[in-house]
Amino acid sequence: MLLRPLALVLFLLHTTACVATVPSWYLAPPADTASHLYGVGAGLSPLNARQQALIDITSRLQVRVQGRLKAHTQTLNGQVDQRVEQQVESENAAFTLSNYELYESAHDKNTFYQLIRVDRPALMAGLEQQLNQHLEQLSQLRQQPMSSLRQFRKLNQNLTTADTARALAGVLEQQQHPVPDLAPLSWFERRLAEHKANSSILLEFTDTSPQTEAFVSQWLDDSGFQVSGPNPIAILKFNIDAQPARELFGQYHVRLDGKLTVVDQGQIVHTKRLTSTGVSSLSEAQAKAVAEQQLLKQIAGENIWQLLLPM
């Protein structure tokens, strides 16, 4: 009769020994203070656990991190000193989270646990420095004299800079840290909105069919440009030169030479030449129509900004 209770005790001891031990500081992390932020993470490796701990902190800052995150880690006793680089994917902003300590760590079975501590004043000072760098970049753009077309392109090229600056400013405001003058960012957002509302391009066609003209107009519209409106930021000319048709073995061959010309403030800034050949057994007109369709396919594959303002 004593064998059954003894077996039950041994079973319970074995079961308890097999249960993973989760650190108490992982279940109940320390509260953030004026001097430090705390984050916990778990993963299949120390790097995975550290990444989750960093995300734990950045998520509370209401900022999603994108791009390369560089940090200097060290244990409290100074025995571990290494630099790590890791990727944390997200949507809105990119910033460097630095000067954090590996405060506690544990390993049980196949799971690693880490508790990290970030110097809060140092973090805010670093974010402010990054924000100032982005604002300086926008300020330089503001001071550069350029045509409306070139400014529109520059604005689009600096969208990530502006988005990051806005996100960093939001973090500093949330943390009640002084925010630098955001005048360059406000100017950028205002100018971008104005350009988007008035980004018209004047189209001029020569020897093109109504179908081609409608296609090019729709292509520009799909790219975010208006095809009519006051004060166009550029002129886009498209003309087609048809070469004499040739008839070979009952097939009509027609070659078309197309040319796209971009005019900015009265000056030609780019010319793109296109060539296509159409073949048809029905007629010369049908062969020309086939060739024109080939030209349109080439236009559809063009990057709009590479066409308007190639580097």
Automatic annotation (TrEMBL):
Statement: the UniProt record of this protein carries the keyword Signal: yes
Keywords of the record: Lipoprotein, Signal
Signal peptide annotation: 1-20
Domain Lipoprotein LPP20-like stretches: 23-119
Domain of life of the native organism: Bacteria
Gene3D superfamilies assigned: Acetamidase/Formamidase-like domains
Any matching Pfam family: LPP20
Name of the molecule in the record: LPP20 lipoprotein
Protein source organism: Ferrimonas sediminum
